[in-house]
Initiator RepB protein
Amino acid sequence: MTNARQSDAHQLALALFEDFAPLSKSIADAPAEIGFSRNNIFVEIEDLSLATRRALDAAYFIVSQKEAVCKTYEVDLNFFQWLMAYSSSNRKHFRALMVEAQKAVIQVQDTDPDDDQDDRWGAVQMLGAVKIYKGKIVFEVHDSLQRAIKNPVSSHFLSLRLIFSSLHAKILHDRLLPVVTEGGTPWIPIQELRRWLSCTTKTYDEFKYIKRDVLEPAIKQINSLSSIAVSLDTRNLPGTKKIGEVRFRVKADQHGTASMAPMLVLKELYDILNDEIGLSTAQFSEIISNREAWTDARIRQALEYTRFSFRRGKVNRSVSGFFMRALKDGYNVGSADLALLEGGANPSGVEPCAAAEVGAVKNTFEVHLARQEAAEARRVEDVTQRGMDLFQALDTQGQQQALQAFSQTSPAKVIATRTKTEVQALGTLVEDNLWMRRALGSFMLEGGEKPSVKRRAARPATDGTAPYLAR
């Protein structure tokens, strides 16, 4: 997996943060699944507040997005707090949360049953050194934990969009996520359950109080917010009426909010929609705002229809506009249409399609896709070249103003994150960075914010397109 592909979730989170933070919207409002495959060992943490658990989730999400083990991780403080759904401006309290996270320790013990002397034990801080300066937060995570975060042997998907108001709901949800595939937990002694939920005070000596004040509210919140459905069974101690054990039944809720559903493929499709289709920031925002209706399958359907129509010469103006219309109206292309395009179908439609004909259609489809991909590559290159020609035609002041306008777009911020370049310095990437040239070329052709600039020479468009700064 490449670094660029692996950081897609991070880029999507950044883009959503840029769109939603100015509106004071929580990550819970973001219409996309932001999260990571969390190692099952991290559900074992105890005695941490709800906010501190969210802080560790946010930190580990950031760590998971880079393939290599790093000494430090640095992100904008506002972005970090957005990921952990922290809206307070109390800096002292936030710092206290970081210190609490540093005090959390994960213990690992492995004793060889055949060798009493081979008793292996380790304790590692869940968060290392933390620094905050100039609007940034810099933190360290022990190397062994980084490896467990980046390459978990057993894991579950943790959605950062799922925000509980109850600490007990958060703890129970985290404990139950790894057992969804098994359908639930084994029988758990009450004492073990009390340790799980940090209910060790005398208030919870009797199970009826744990059930009434802790379990029932937590299960209700999990069932209403998450994508798993939880129920509780109890079992008495032998020969008594006293509850001695409990177990939880867990199943994926098909109507839930999707922490167990596939992650949104929007992040997988981002490069295609951005580079090939050339969607604008406004069009991306419209898709994100309608993700419940415009599913992954529908996006791919519209994409295939757009490619099919482009191949037939039916896309005469804006490819991105054509795609959006196909997406909104649910246009589709069938295998017979593809076969007709390549001359591989029976126009009369008299005989039913036999197995051999199905294979022919499939081969035709594969050939069509290969040709289509080549055509799309040529189109992207053409858009890039024409857009960069417009950029190069500007004088120095005009180029600076164009770059300033481009720096305000989401693609610019994504490129800055990918390349670790300040947004204001993206101009240094124009000559040799393919991402930058494609995004800037598309921006120049499509328009966007149009600063007042001067051209070196008048160059009228020859293809009927109203380019950037020429409209």
